[in-house]
C-alpha cells in the first residue's frame, strides 16, 4: 500500500484529527476583522494547514523524528460544544440540495457506463460526496468520550484599541464562560495560553501597540506574547485571486471581496505567527505533555504487576461516578490520562505510542462497561493500524468491533457508528476491497432517509468500480437511492439517479426493463401535478 498519509483516508485523518485551539477575543478586535468581510477565526483558518513544516520531535522513548505535516483547527470558545443535531441535519440538507441544483443547472447527459468504467475513481465520484462525508463526520465534534477535539491551547486576542488591554486579557479567560468540557470536569482548564495583540493599521501608528506588547510580556511571559498588524491597505480594494477564505465562509456571495484591506505583508505576518505558534509553542507543549503523561502511565499501569493490580481493583475505584450511560471519568483520572496520551501521540504522528495506549485503555473501558468509550478506542485502534500500515486483519476487526458496539448503544451511538463506517469504507477502498466497502455503506444507512440516499448512491459507485463491475447491483442501489431522494423531495437528485440507470441498458441488456420502469415512473411523477390541476 502507498504511504497511508497520502491516501484519501490518511488525508482525512490529518485534516480532522488535529489539535484544536480555543479562541477568546474582544468585540473591538472582531470589528477590525469584519472590515474584510470575515471573522478573526475565518481570517486565520486558511493558513493553519502546514504541508511542508519541519519540526524536530522526540518520542516518549527519546527517539527523534521530524514532523512534516501539521494542522491546527481554530474555534471560538462558544463553538466548542457538541453540534445541535437539528441544525447539523439542516446543514447537511443544504449541502445535498445545493449539489442537486448545481448538477441540474449543468444539465449534461449522464455519462455512458462504458465511459465511466474507463475512468479512475476520483474522476467518477461526484466531488460533493467527499464534502458531505466530512460534514457528516463533523456533526460529532467535541464529544466527551474522546480527546482529539479537546483544545490543546487557548489563544487570547485583544485589539490594541481596547481599553486596559492587560485587564481584558485576564477577563477573557473567565472560567464561567468556558465550554462545558471544562466546567463538567471532562477537561483540565490548565492548558497552554498564548496572548496576541492585534493592531489595525487604520487606527494609527504602531508605537502604542509596541509599548503594550512590552507590558504584556512583563505580565504574561516573554515568549507567550506576540503582535500582528492587519488592514495595511487604506482603500480596501485588494483582490485576492485565490480567495483563500471562501471555503471558510460558505455564505459569502460570489461577488463579495473578502480580505480587501489585507495586503501581502499582512498575510505574511499572519502566516509567520501561525507557524511560530505551531512549531515553537503547541508542538513542544504537546511533546512535553506526552512525556509527563507517559511517565505517569508507566508508573501506575504498565508492567505485569501493575496490570494485575488494576484488573483486581477495577471495580473499586473512588474517582469514577456510575451513571446509566456508564462511568464518568474526570480529567485527572488515569483513564483520561491514557486516552489523552493516545490522542496526542496520534496527532503528532507517533502511532506506535498511540496504539499501545489505546490497547491499554480499551481493556479498562470494557471492564467498566463504558461502551461508548470502548467503541471510540477500538475505532482509533483501527485507524492507527491503518496509519502504521500494519495488520489489515486487526484494523478491520477493530473497526467492525467499534461499529457493532456503537450500534448496540441505540440512538446514542448511531451517529458514531456512521462516522466509524465512513472511515472504515475509506480503509477498505484504499486496499481495493471495493465490494466490502459497498456493504459497509449499506450497513450505515440509518433512519435518516436523506442521508441514506447519499450513502446508497455511494454504495452503487462501489459496485460500478469493483473488478469486474457489478452492474446489476450498481443499478439496484441507484434505484434505492433515487427512491430515497424522492421521499425527501430531492427531486433533482432523484431525476439524476433515474437517468443514470437508463444508461446502464446500453451495456447490459438485462437492465433494460428496469430502465424503462424508472423512465415510466419518472414521467408519471413529473406529470401528476399537471393532470390534477
UniProtKB/TrEMBL annotation:
The chain crosses the membrane at residues 510-532. Keywords: Membrane, Transmembrane, Transmembrane helix. One of its GO terms (cellular component) is TRAPPIII protein complex. It comes from the Eukaryota. InterPro entries: TRAPP_III_complex_Trs85. The keyword DNA damage does not apply. The keyword Chaperone does not apply. PANTHER family: TRAFFICKING PROTEIN PARTICLE COMPLEX SUBUNIT 8 (PTHR12975:SF6), TRANSPORT PROTEIN TRAPP (PTHR12975). This is Trafficking protein particle complex subunit 8. It comes from Hibiscus trionum.
Amino acid at each position: 500500500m502507498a504511504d497511508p498519509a497520502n491516501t484519501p483516508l490518511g488525508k482525512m485523518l490529518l485534516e480532522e484529527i488535529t489539535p484544536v485551539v480555543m479562541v477568546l477575543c474582544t468585540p473591538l478586535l472582531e470589528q477590525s476583522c469584519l472590515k474584510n468581510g470575515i471573522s478573526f477565526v475565518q481570517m486565520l483558518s486558511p493558513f493553519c494547514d502546514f504541508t511542508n513544516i519541519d519540526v524536530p520531535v522526540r518520542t516518549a522513548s527519546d527517539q527523534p523524528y521530524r514532523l512534516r505535516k501539521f494542522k491546527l483547527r481554530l474555534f471560538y470558545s462558544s463553538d466548542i460544544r457538541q453540534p445541535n443535531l437539528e441544525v447539523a441535519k439542516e446543514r447537511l440538507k443544504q449541502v445535498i440540495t445545493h449539489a442537486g441544483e448545481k448538477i441540474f443547472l449543468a444539465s449534461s447527459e449522464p455519462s455512458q457506463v462504458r465511459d465511466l468504467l474507463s475512468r479512475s475513481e476520483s474522476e467518477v465520484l461526484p466531488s460533493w460526496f467527499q464534502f458531505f462525508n466530512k460534514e457528516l463526520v463533523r456533526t460529532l465534534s467535541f464529544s466527551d468520550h474522546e480527546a482529539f477535539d479537546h483544545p490543546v491551547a487557548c489563544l487570547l486576542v485583544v485589539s490594541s484599541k481596547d481599553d486596559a488591554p492587560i485587564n481584558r486579557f485576564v477577563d477573557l479567560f473567565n472560567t464561567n464562560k468556558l465550554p462545558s468540557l471544562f466546567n463538567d470536569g471532562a477537561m483540565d482548564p490548565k492548558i497552554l495560553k498564548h496572548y496576541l495583540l492585534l493592531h489595525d493599521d487604520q487606527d494609527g501608528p504602531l508605537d502604542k501597540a509596541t509599548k503594550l506588547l512590552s507590558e504584556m510580556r512583563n505580565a504574561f511571559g516573554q515568549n507567550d506574547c506576540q503582535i500582528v498588524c492587519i488592514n495595511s491597505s487604506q482603500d480596501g480594494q485588494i483582490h485576492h485571486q485565490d480567495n483563500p477564505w471562501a471555503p471558510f465562509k460558505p455564505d459569502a456571495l460570489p461577488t463579495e471581496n473578502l480580505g480587501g484591506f489585507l495586503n501581502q505583508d499582512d498575510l505574511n505576518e499572519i502566516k509567520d505567527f501561525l507557524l511560530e505558534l505551531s512549531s515553537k509553542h503547541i508542538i513542544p507543549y504537546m511533546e512535553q505533555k506526552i512525556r509527563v503523561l507517559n511517565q505517569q502511565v508507566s508508573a501506575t499501569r504498565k508492567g505485569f504487576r501493575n496490570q494485575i493490580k488494576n484488573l483486581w481493583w477495577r471495580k473499586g475505584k473512588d474517582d469514577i461516578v456510575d451513571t446509566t450511560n456508564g462511568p464518568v471519568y474526570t480529567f485527572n483520572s488515569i483513564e483520561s490520562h491514557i486516552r489523552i496520551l493516545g490522542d496526542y501521540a496520534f496527532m503528532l504522528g507517533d502511532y506506535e505510542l498511540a496504539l499501545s495506549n489505546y490497547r491499554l485503555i480499551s481493556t479498562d473501558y470494557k471492564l467498566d462497561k463504558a461502551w461508548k468509550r470502548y467503541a471510540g478506542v477500538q475505532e482509533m485502534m483501527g485507524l492507527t493500524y491503518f496509519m502504521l500500515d500494519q495488520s489489515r486483519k486487526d484494523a478491520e476487526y477493530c473497526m467492525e468491533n467499534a461499529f457493532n458496539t456503537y450500534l448496540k448503544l441505540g440512538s446514542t451511538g448511531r451517529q458514531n457508528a456512521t462516522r466509524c463506517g465512513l472511515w472504515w469504507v475509506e480503509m477498505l477502498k484504499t486496499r481495493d476491497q471495493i465490494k466490502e466497502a459497498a456493504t459497509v455503506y449499506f450497513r450505515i444507512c440509518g433512519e435518516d432517509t436523506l442521508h441514506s440516499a447519499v450513502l446508497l448512491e455511494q454504495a452503487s459507485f462501489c459496485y460500478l468500480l469493483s473488478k469486474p463491475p457489478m452492474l446489476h447491483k450498481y443499478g439496484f442501489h441507484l434505484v434505492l437511492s433515487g427512491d430515497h431522494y424522492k421521499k425527501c423531495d430531492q427531486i433533482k437528485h432523484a431525476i439524476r439517479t433515474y437517468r443514470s440507470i437508463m444508461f446502464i441498458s446500453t451495456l447490459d441488456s438485462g437492465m433494460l426493463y428496469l430502465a424503462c420502469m424508472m423512465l415510466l415512473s419518472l414521467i408519471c411523477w413529473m406529470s401528476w401535478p399537471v393532470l390534477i390541476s
